[in-house]
Amino acid sequence: MKTGFLRVGVLMGGWSTERAVSLVSGRKVAEGLRAAGFSTVVLDLTAKDKDEKKLAARLRAARMDVAFIALHGGYGENGGLQALLSRLKIPYTGSGSLACGLAMQKACAKLVFEANGIATAPWQALEKRKGANDKRGREVGLKPPLVVKPADGGSAIGVTIVRKKEQLDRALALAFKTSHWVLVEKFIEGVEVTAGVLREKALPLIEIVPANEFYDYDAKYTPGRSKHLIPARIPAGAAREARALAVKAGSVLGCRDFYRVDLIVPKKGGPQVLEVNTVPGMTGTSLFPEAAAKAGTPFPKLLKQLVVLALSRKGRD
Questions:
Q1: 262 is catalytic
Q2: pTM to 2 decimal places
Q3: Diameter over CA atoms, the chain
């Protein structure tokens, strides 16, 4: 493929709580695409682009051959942007609108996992109620330790590890600040690993060792605040099971091309799936490109593969 004849639009920014991270990913992607020989145009989406008619006009005016989605959270991962690009017949990277929507709504993804025999931590979802979100702890039937998080967010924004029941109200109120739904799940003690999946094959597992209590925003994006260990320090059998679970978790949601699956490997029992990320980070500290590089696919080559896969669909969702 003569990449110089192709114009790739890098879509980044957005108006979700993950805007800052998305901008970093987008710039990194644009840099890598240029290194791979592509002509690029960068589109920083803002709140002004909530009007889909205006956004559609802007996307058409960019005259891109393919859109590379580096828009984390919100509109970039809930299927909205994917659906619009599909209507415009603009090929785009990553999973389709339905798969993105399912993965983004963590409670929906949990239901799909359970229906397909995929191990995942016990959970409960709570819906936001007008004027009644600061005293919701009594509605939680699970006993601590728990993880409380926005049901449709990412980058660990609004996430709390609850060790005592009296911490629940505050944790729920924090999560409700950024989401209409909150997911409460049993905290599983164990080794946290992530498995990137590229073209239906799992990449090498990465063990995440954060300097903080958990892999929060600071640990994710501040160099030196977490260690990424390859190979993960888990038994070989558990590693094989985790990689197989990652592929299956994405498959049952309908994901394609590339995605990342977070899992916990407890001391006893098999790996458990936490969530699926359909637009993995592409920053300098991000896990997916690190795993791809370990598997022998450097960043520019990875981006080229994703663009080629998008073009092969010719704008079909």
A1: yes
A2: 0.90
A3: 61
